[in-house]
Amino acid sequence: MSDAFIVCSNLSFSWPDDTPVFSELSFTVPGGRTGLVAPNGAGKSTLLRLIAGELRPSGGSVTVDGLLGYLPQTLPLAGDLTVAQVLGVAERIAALHAIEGGDASEEHFATIGDDWDIEERTRAELDRLGLGGLALDRRMHTLSGGQVVSLGLAAQLLRRPDVLLLDEPTNNLDLDARHKLYGVLTDWPGCLLLVSHDRELLDRMDRIAELDRGEIRWYGGNFTAYTEAVQAAREVAESNLRNAEQEVKREKREMQQARERATGGPATPPGTSRTPAWPGSSPAG
Fold first, then answer.
1. Which helix (H) or strand (E) holds 253?
2. Which residues in the chain land under pLDDT 70?
3. In a domain, 37, yes or no
């Protein structure tokens, strides 16, 4: 698949009431960091859900090259789960502790596999996202909204995905947590497709994909470069419109002048007489 990590071919999707969202949308997402922008309601989150497999397209196909990680806006995390359970590491860490405690059961080794550094990797990932002091047995209902978001991202990163989809990942994050996330994504080595209204985060992207009226337009560079390109294109379009309007006015003048030459004088407005007044006569007759 060369450098294309996500391929959408003739992708179509409608809601159950037959309201169309996409119709035969085709695009590819290469490696690196891509910011997906669009007006609210254009279908950004729906598109991520289609790529993630949460929704099924009514037509076309989605192909993802490699392991996929997906962080939605709303995380379906039960309040009684522990941090380790949400991260997906609880069983492996428990098996590791059992072996360290002298229990050499074969099932523990099978559970761990080759992931003997799972606890260290988990701690390191939590620390990168500002959650270094979080106990692995802590329950979810005791965490803040920002901690839940960061924990959800940590869970995806621990899976070592090749493709990462993030939907508004800085929602509920304080300034320090946002900067932690910026640093993590700056070092991201795979394919990242991100939906966000966070301009500082979008300015860390390699390219911007604009979803507009069911089509995607690509812009190289970050969000600032994108806005400058859009503004420049708008100014060119406005200039072309002004030039076209002036050209229409010029053509109308030339046609008027041609009519005047053909009739031997200025064109007469409708409803008036071209009969000249005789010398010495009054206009009233």
1. helix 223-263
2. 1-4, 76-78, 239, 265-285
3. no
Record the tokens describing residue 273, joined without a space. 């007489």
> Both ends of the chain: CA-CA distance in Å?
91
In angstroms, the CA 106 to CA 186 distance is: 40
Residue 147 in contact with residue 171, Cβ under 8 Å?
no
With vertex at residue 184, the alpha carbon angle to CA 171 and CA 125, rounded to the nearest 5 degrees, is: 95
31, 3, 41, 37: which is closest to 229 by C-alpha?
Answer: 37
Task: Decide if 146 is inside a domain.
Answer: yes
Domain membership flag for residue 227 = no
Domain count, the chain: 1
Question: Does residue 215 come out as left (phi exceeding 0), alpha (psi in the -120 to 50 range) or beta?
Answer: beta
Own/partner long-range contacts of 201-207 (Cβ < 8 Å, ≥24 apart): 201/35, 201/169, 201/170, 202/35, 202/37, 204/33, 205/33, 205/34, 205/35, 206/32, 206/33, 206/34, 207/32, 207/33, 207/34, 207/35
Tokens representing 111 are: 């559970």
CA dihedral (222, 223, 225, 230) positive or negative: positive
* Domain contains 248: no
pTM > 0.85: no
**Distance from C-alpha of 155 to C-alpha of 218, rounded to nearest angstrom:** 30
Of 137, 197, 189, nearest to 161 by C-alpha is 189
Q: pLDDT digits over 170-180, tens only?
A: 988 999 999 99
Domain extent, residue 113, equals: 78-158
CB of 90 closer than 8 Å to CB of 82: yes
Q: Which two tokens stand for residue 241?
A: 């419109």
User: What DSSP character marks residue 27?
Assistant: E
